[in-house]
Fold this protein.
Amino acid sequence: MKNITRGGQFLVKETKAEDIFTPEDLTEEQKMMRDSVKEFVDREVWPNKKRFEEKDYAFTEEIMRKAGEMGLLGIAVPEEYDGLGMGFVTTMLVCDYISGATGSLATAFGAHTGIGTMPILLYGTEEQKKKYVPKLATGEWFGAYCLTEPGAGSDANSGKTKAVLSEDRKHYLISGQKMWISNAGFANLFIVFARIEDDKYITGFIVENDPSNGITFGEEEHKLGIHSSSTRQVFFSDTKVPVENMLSERGNGFKIAMNALNVGRIKLAGACLDAQRRVITEAVKYANDRVQFKTPISQFGVIKSKIAEMATAAYVGESAVYRAAKDIENRIEIRQAEGNSHQEAELKGVEEYAIECSILKVAASEDCQNCTDEGIQILGGMGFSADTPMESAWRDARISRIYEGTNEINRMLSVGMLIKKAMKGHVDLLGPAMAVKDELMGIPDFDTPDYSELFAEEKEIIGKLKKAFLMIAGAGAQKYGPELEEHQQLLMAASDILIEIYMAESAILRTEKNAKRFGKENQKEQIAMAKLNLFHAVEKINSKGKEGIASFTEGDEQRMMLMGLKRFTKYANLPNIVTLRNTIAEKVSAENKYCF
Ligand SMILES: Cc1cc2nc3c(=O)[nH]c(=O)nc-3n(C[C@H](O)[C@H](O)[C@H](O)COP(=O)(O)OP(=O)(O)OC[C@H]3O[C@@H](n4cnc5c(N)ncnc54)[C@H](O)[C@@H]3O)c2cc1C
C-alpha cells in the first residue's frame, strides 16, 4: 500500500505526486462505469432538461427508477444487500457524472443514495440492513432524510421532534415537523431524527412512509432552482415506529446525522464537477460560434480569461475530489484488512477525512457557482434566457452552498476539526507551528534555490503556504484556546487558507504525476492550470492572512507575523498570468469542450 496521508495531515506532511490518485489513474472498469453514466445522462436527462425546469417531479422519479435498473442507486451498497459493492472512487464517479445535467436529479440521487440510504448501511443492524437496503439499492423504494426543522437548521441537534415510548414498550410514537425534506414527495422510507425525553442528543429512526400512520406532507416548496427535486415539509403525528427501527443507540442520532453528512459532503463536491464541465463546454461552443466585431468572441482576451478560469477551477476540483476519494477508499481497505467490518471500515474511513470532505464541499460548490455565473456572462443576453442551459445551471448551483451544512458551517468545521485532531494528538500541529515561529525569529535564507525542475518553486510555495496557516492558526489557538471557535471571522479566514492549500496542492501533484508519465508537453495546459490556480491561492492567502493576523495581534507580534506572511506568500519568479490563461483557453477553444 502506498504512503497514505491520514485525514488532515496534508497540512503537516509532504505528499508525493506518486502517492496521490488522479482521474488519469482510473481503471478500465471505472472508466466503463463513468462512460455508461455519461451516456445515460446524455440520452435520458440532458435532452429533457426542460421537463426538469417545469417541475415535473414524476419525471425525476422515473429517471431515478431507470438509474435503479442500471444499478446506479446501489453502487456503494455491498453485494449481499443487492448492490454493486463498488469502491469509493467508483461511487464518486457515478455521483459526479449523474449530476451534471440538472441539479434536480443530482439532489434526488444524492438524497436517496447518500443521506437516505447510508445511515442504515453504516449504522443499521443486520436485520435492518436486510429488510431495507436491497429495496433502496435497486430503486424499488426511495429514501429521504428528515433532520431539519423550522427551528433547527444548522443547529441540527436542537430539533423538537419527539419520540415517546409506548406503554407496551413495543413502539416509539414520533411527533414533529420536518422541513426542506428532499425526495419527500415520493419517498417510501424516512430516516427521522427525534428526541427521546430530555436526552441531550437526538436519536435516529427508520420510518416507513404510511399515510395511515400519522404522516402528512406540506405542498412542494417554490424554489429558486432544482425545480424538479421534490422538497416538502413532513409532519409526524404519533407515528408508530417499532422499537427495532431505532438506528444505532438512543442518543446516537446526532453522530449518525453528522457522519452521514461527511459522506454527503464529499459526494456533493463530486456532484458539482460535471455541471462545471458541461457549462464550460456549452460556453466555449457558444463563444466559438458567436461573432461580434467580426471576431468569434472566444478570441477576445476577456473571454479567454473567463474560459481559462472556469476550466482551471473544474480541473482543480477534480484533482482534489478524486485524491480524497481514493484516500478514503484506501483507508476503508486498510481497516477491512485489519478485521473491521465493511460497515465499521467505511464509517471510520470517511470520518477520518471529515476535514477534507468539508473543504471539498465548500470549494466545489463555490467553483460551480462561479462557473455557471461566468457561463451566463459568456452567453450575454442569451445566458439570461431560460432557453439556454446556463440559466437553470446557475439557479441549480446555488443550493449546493446551503445544504449538507452551509458553507459557513463547513468552513468553521474544517478548522475546528483540525484543531480537535491536533489536541487529540492525531495531527501534530503544535510542533510545526512552533518550528515556524522559530524560523521567523531566525535569519532568512537568501540563497536562490534551483527551480529548474517542474513545479520546484510551486511546491516550495505550497510548503510556505502551509507555514502561513500554521503560524496564524497556531497563534490564534494559543491566544484564544477553546474560545477560538467564538472568533468566527478569524476561523473563516483560516479556513479559506486551508481550502486554498488543499486545492492548490492537489492540482499541482496531479499535474506533476501526469507530466512525469505523459510528458511535460502533453500536460502543457494542465501545468498552466496548476500554476494559475496557485497564483490565486497565494493572493487569497495573503489577503486572508492579513485579515486574520490583524484581528488578534498588535505591535511587534503583528509586525513579525506580517513579515512572515509576506515571506510565505512570495514568488521568486512571478508567473505571467495572462500567458497561462491564454494557453488554457486556446486549448479549450480548439477542442470546443472541457477537455482535461
Ligand atoms: C432545497 C433544499 C433541500 C434540503 N434537503 C434537506 C433534506 O433532505 N433533509 C434535511 O434534513 N434538510 C434538508 N435541507 C435543509 C438544509 O440542510 C438547511 O437549510 C441548512 O442546513 C441550513 O439550515 P437553515 O436553512 O435553517 O439555515 P440557518 O441555520 O438558519 O442558517 C442561516 C444562515 O446563518 C448561518 N449560521 C447558522 N448558524 C451559524 C453559526 N453558528 N455561526 C455562523 N453562522 C451561522 C448559516 O451559515 C446561514 O448563512 C434542505 C434545504 C434546502 C433549501
About this structure: The chain is about 60% helix and 10% strand. The pocket of flavin-adenine dinucleotide is lined by residues 111, 144-148, 153-154, 180-182, 223, 226, 231, 399, 402-403, 405-406, 408-409, 488 (CB under 6 Å). The longest strand covers residues 171-182. The mean pLDDT is 96.
